[in-house]
Amino acid sequence: MNLALLPGDGIGPEVIQQAVKVVKAVGKKFNHQITFKEAIVGAAAIDQTGNPYPDATHEICLQSDAVLFGAIGDPKYDNDPKAKVRPEQGLLEMRRKLGLFCNVRPTFTFPSLVHKSPLRQERIEGTDLVFLRELTGGIYFGEPRGRNEQGTKAFDTNIYTVEEIERLARMGFEFAQKRRKLLTCVDKANVMATSRLWRETVQRLAPEYPDVTVEYEFVDAVAMRLIQWPKAYDVLITENLFGDILTDEASVISGSMGLMPSASLGLNTKLFEPIHGSYPQAAGKDIANPLATVLSAAMMFEYAFGLMDEATAISDAVNFSLEAGVVTEDIAEGGKAYKTSEVGDWLVEKILG
Ligand code: IPM
Ligand code: MN
Predict the structure, then answer these.
(1) Whose CA is nearest to atom 4 of ligand 1?
(2) Which of 89, 139, 244, 251 for a ligand 1 pocket mutation test, highest count of atoms within 8 Å of Cβ?
(3) How far does residue 19's CA lie from ligand 2's centre (Å)?
(4) Among residues 188, 234, 338, 350, which one is catalytic?
(5) What distance in Å separates the CA atoms of residue 162 and residue 201, rounded to the nearest whole number?
(6) Number of Cβ atoms within 10 Å of the Cβ of 302
């Protein structure tokens, strides 16, 4: 397995480092030859090359069997709306060039953490849903975008083609078939033309998947029901922007954003990344939660290589660490807070032990 490592910005490098340790341990335990190639992306890449997603990085991604990605973003760009190049452009370029149109973001609860959620335990216990967020279209990429000449008017364009909707929707149906066979199409068809095309396209495909029950729900209603009754959902498909917002909301159900992994699937090499961002305030302090990245590595074994035992070895170790209270400060809550690297070391021992 040839893996590309893109640590990126903020806490990216330190959480990626833990994932690498864990992947190496799994390689040892299950006898896999694993090689790593590191590449720059984000603010780090702007500093070195002026480009947040350099061609050399893209080449490494294309030639790898999977990409493990940390995070992108640096506060020095956030408060400078006039900055010409922004780290996030690198992330969007990477998604576009690798054709990663389907972002898989699961939400599940950890039995040892349910009492720590801000939501009532009985509402969230047993939640097991997955968002498929469209990742290379919609308002993130639509043209035209910008300002009028006087700078007094700004505009973004939300565009979707049938083809873009259909390929994402088909993945949704296929995911649902392997799970509890419930698919929810999240849109704003009462207002938006793009949403009506989503709904029409999903309705057209539905008869091809007779074993899957399809529900259509407006995004505002989903925002509410998701935290009121998350167990009502199985697989949700939605456009880029709605998916961005709802998956942050959904991460609260699990107790911490530091726990939620993701996989991005599409036309080329698959990519795996935590859904939390670069968390610059914690960068370099060895306090960030590495579990979302470690669980992203578990998703890599499952989705890039079809290796379920390897994936389970990782998720089991993570569950053990949570039960044993070997956790970083974001979930330690008064108990002992372990360092990022200590959690990584503990997981390695658990996997090899
Ligand atoms: C995410 C992030 C990105 C997005 C940002 C950093 C551009 O929030 O992966 O969810 O909006 O897609
Ligand atoms: Mn986001």
Answers:
(1) 244
(2) 244
(3) 21
(4) 188
(5) 7
(6) 18
Separation of 248 CA from ligand 1 center, angstroms?
Answer: 10
On the question of a cis peptide bond just before residue 261, with omega within 30 degrees of 0, the verdict is: no
Q: Is 187 a catalytic residue?
A: no
Q: How far is the CA of 244 from the centre of ligand 1 (A)?
A: 7
Q: How far apart are CA 308 and CA 331, in angstroms?
A: 27
For 114-130, the pLDDT digits (tens) are: 888 889 999 999 999 99
The ligand with the least distance to the CA atom of 9 is 1
Respond yes or no: is residue 244 known to be catalytic. Answer: yes
Question: 170, 201 in Cβ contact below 8 A?
Answer: no
248 is catalytic: yes
Q: Residue 136: which residues within 8 A CB-CB, separation 6 or more?
A: 95, 96, 99, 100, 101, 164, 240, 266
Active-site entry in 140, 160, 279, 338: 140
What's the gap in Å between 277 CA and the centre of ligand 1?
8
Give the closest residue to 291 by CA, choosing from 123, 131, 112, 171.
Answer: 112
Question: What is the torsional sign of CA 116, 120, 122, 126?
Answer: negative
Residue indicated by tokens 């690498």: 20
Answer whether 126's CB lies under 8 Å from 146's CB. no
Tell me what pLDDT residue 345 has: 98
The residues, any chain, with a CB within 8 Å of residue 330's CB and separated by 6 or more, are 256, 258, 289
Mean pLDDT score, 320-332: 94
Q: What is the pLDDT of residue 123?
A: 94
Residue 281 per-residue DSSP state: G
